[in-house]
Amino acid sequence: MPVLKTNDGTEIYYKDWGSGQPIVFSHGWPLSSDDWDAQMLFFLNHGFRVIAHDRRGHGRSSQVSDGHDMDHYADDLAALTAHLDLKGAVHVGHSTGGGEVVHYLARHGESRAAKAAIIAAVPPLMVQTAANPGGLPKSVFDDFQAQVATRRAEFYRDVAAGPFYGYNKPGAKPSEAVIQNWWRQGMMGSAKAHYDGVVAFSQTDFTEDLKKISLPVLVMHSEDDQIVPYADSAPLSAKLLKNGTLKTYKGFPHGMPTTEAATINADLLAFIKG
């Protein structure tokens, strides 16, 4: 398996297919690079080099006990881009991965990047604070951690079968295979990484990061997202970015790169080629 060893000895698993302009995909919590199957194959067939890694503690990467925070996530992504000597890369991040992309660009600069897209992403800040009254109460994320610690397998099944793909909505037609694939990816990872990762995705404030980014960024989000509420995320991120474009969807779930892959892929391709 292709792996990169970081400065702290963590082995990061990655996929690197094809040639051409590189597109680097950063996955959401608590999944793996496998969550990008529909995008990896699509863009590979359109002549791009496609790269995706398993975040530390997720998928096939090392189940280390420490470093499950946005600084380490961004540094691991920077290590990957340096290891592969990427130039002119397009970075695409979903959910927590959107935060990873934003923090990477702000922390490590844009010298290796050309564009970015964040999909159903957690920036600017998920948790409710005095300065962010529209955020979700901290108790919501405390409950996530409690569920990971006490009933992780059932919790992951509930998330995938319910709000993540909008399968809890009237008239929805759940795909058992999609649910099981989400559960499989989640259970491959480390409970410790997933427990700590809740704090990373919910309490990291990306406001200053967003302000630093000057390259074009496409912000893609659905008004019907049940995991990362729309009003307190995408429109705010688009305003903070120097060169941000907001693309709003109706009726799509948080997991729209999977369930609405045809639309998401077409919109990403138009942005990348535009």
From TrEMBL:
UniProt keyword Hydrolase present: yes
GO MF: hydrolase activity
Pfam (any one): Abhydrolase_1
UniProt KW keywords: Hydrolase
InterPro entries tied to this protein: AB_hydrolase (IPR050471), AB_hydrolase_1 (IPR000073), AB_hydrolase_fold (IPR029058)
Occurrences of domain AB hydrolase-1 (ranges): 22-254
PANTHER family, sorted: HYDROLASE, ALPHA/BETA FOLD FAMILY PROTEIN (PTHR43433), NON-HEME CHLOROPEROXIDASE (PTHR43433:SF3)
Protein name, as recorded: Alpha/beta hydrolase
UniProt source species: Bradyrhizobium denitrificans
